[in-house]
Amino acid sequence: MRNTERYQVNGPNSLWQLYKTVSFWKVMKNFVIIQLARYTPFLPMKNWLYRVCLRMKVGEQTAFALMVMVDLMFPERISVGKNSIIGYHTTILTHEYLIDEYRLGDVTIGNEVMIGANSTILPGVTIGDRAVISAGTVVHKDVEAGTFVGGNPMRTIYTAEEMSKRKK
């Protein structure tokens, strides 16, 4: 189970009530900064935008590929360790707006993690150090350190022990 905080809403669906949960101006500022970061080919500049303007925790030498989409409303809830790669067109979410509730959850990505292109990381997920996420994976639960996972639904392809044996 993902580690999310749940908030019930009354009346229209929770997305319709978006600006009761987050400031319109914060969303607008985040939108502009995220769009700049998505298209810039300069990794140091991209990481600076994330760290300084969005208050994300981003480790040294971490690389966000072109078109990565970080959470628009709560990017400060994202933490990525050092020397990790976030693949092309990956989405990292820290919120879910549902009919009767919305959920918020931190996303923690460890050191030296490889996330393949077109993956989606859902709120409340922790990905351990040196984990590998196959392209196109929907990460809907925690991933153990050193594990290779993939697919939708996500499943373990190799455990950390199997990965270390394959490298030898």
Question: In words, what does this structure look like?
Answer:
- With 168 residues, the chain is an alpha/beta fold.
- It has a single domain (5-167), classed as Hexapeptide repeat proteins (UDP N-Acetylglucosamine Acyltransferase, domain 1).
- Helix content is 21%, strand content 26%.
- The chain is built from 3 helices and 17 strands.
- The protein has helices spanning 24-39, 43-53, 160-167, and strands spanning 5-8, 57-58, 63-64, 69-70, 78-80, 85-86, 91-92, 95-97, 101-104, 107-109, 114-115, 120-121, 126-127, 132-133, 138-139, 148-150, 155-158.
- It has a 6-stranded mixed sheet. Strands 2-5-10-13 form a 4-stranded parallel sheet, with helices on one face. A 4-stranded parallel sheet has the order 4-7-12-15.
- The chain is globular, with a radius of gyration of 16 Å.
- The chain starts with a strand and ends with a helix.
- The model has no long low-confidence stretch (mean pLDDT 95).
Could you provide a short overview of the structure?
This protein has a single domain, classed as Hexapeptide repeat proteins (UDP N-Acetylglucosamine Acyltransferase, domain 1), CATH 2.160.10. The protein is 21% helix and 26% strand.
Write the layout of secondary structure elements.
Layout: E1 5-8, H1 24-39, H2 43-53, E2 57-58, E3 63-64, E4 69-70, E5 78-80, E6 85-86, E7 91-92, E8 95-97, E9 101-104, E10 107-109, E11 114-115, E12 120-121, E13 126-127, E14 132-133, E15 138-139, E16 148-150, E17 155-158, H3 160-167
Parallel strand pairs: 2-5, 3-6, 4-7, 5-10, 6-11, 7-12, 10-13, 11-14, 12-15, 14-16
Antiparallel strand pairs: 1-9, 8-9, 16-17
Helix pairs in contact: 1-2
Protein name: DapH/DapD/GlmU-related protein
InterPro entries: Hexapep, Trans_hexapeptide_repeat, Trimer_LpxA-like_sf
Pfam families: Hexapep_2
